[in-house]
Amino acid sequence: MSPHERATTGTDPATLRAVAEQVASEAAEHLRGLPSPRDAAGEVNGQAVTTKSSPTDVVTASDASVERFVRARLAELRPGEPVYGEEGAGDAATARWVVDPIDGTVNYLYGLPWYAISVAAVEAGETLAGAVAEPAAGRLWSAGRGLGSTCDGRPLAVTRATELGQSLVGTGFAYRAERRARQARMVAEMLPEVRDVRRAGAAALDLCAVAAGWLDGYLEHGANWWDWAAGALIAREAGALVHIAAPPGVFADLGVAGDRLGADVSLAATPGIAHELAGLALRSGASLV
After folding, report:
1. Which of 51, 93, 195, 275 has the most crowded Cβ, counting Cβ within 10 A?
2. What mean pLDDT comes out for the span 23-30?
3. Is the pTM of this model over 0.90?
4. Which CATH superfamily is domain 3-155 in?
5. Long-range contacts of 135-141 (CB under 8 A, 24+ apart)
């Protein structure tokens, strides 16, 4: 075991952040070494592709390979600590690590660069540290509780936006057709009241975009724990108000206003528009999504 690996035995946020950064970075390198899921003509290139909750909810062989890699590295660096992952499951109640091997799998499958690997350290459902690595761009986002958040070592801070009508808002859509239709109606109602809406296809990166000031806010129903476990802390440590309704690991900066948005809503925004964004979402039918 290397000197660095011997130093990863603590449970403070700084130590856990270093482990998350190391594992996410190594996993990104592992993914870059795997065959592309599509050939030059855009067809699936010999890689097994299956589906989960719906025909549009895809899983590639790379998802499984990356999760196996992450689990193996965590077992070496943090032996005995339970892992809860999107593809390999696990016990959410006892998890120390929450892993999304590829957030934005559809983007990855189509050759779009907006996908990421998310590794978060948790305690009793609360995120203590996390890292989000972008294999295509090479960026590494991370945060530790009380330690701030960074991208490639540079400190992050949310925008100072105070006018919702001049704010750029990110969102995402579920995989089931009937829910996507409800989400689309909500977004259509919101669109005239904001600068514009972006849908990039990876919740972890949307949350990082709020942290970087690339988005003023983000709102989505249906994201899972592995989608936001690291990204929500990165946004919050950059100054965002964050509300995640889905347990475990509730971030509840908006209080009652956030609770009314829905049972599985994720919202992160600069403080100057967060409550107004929640109010707009409610008026646009968020509680019915």
Report:
1. 275
2. 98
3. yes
4. Fructose-1,6-Bisphosphatase, subunit A, domain 1 (3.30.540.10)
5. 135/28, 135/29, 135/31, 135/32, 137/113, 138/28, 140/21, 140/24, 140/25, 140/28, 141/208, 141/211, 141/230, 141/231, 141/234
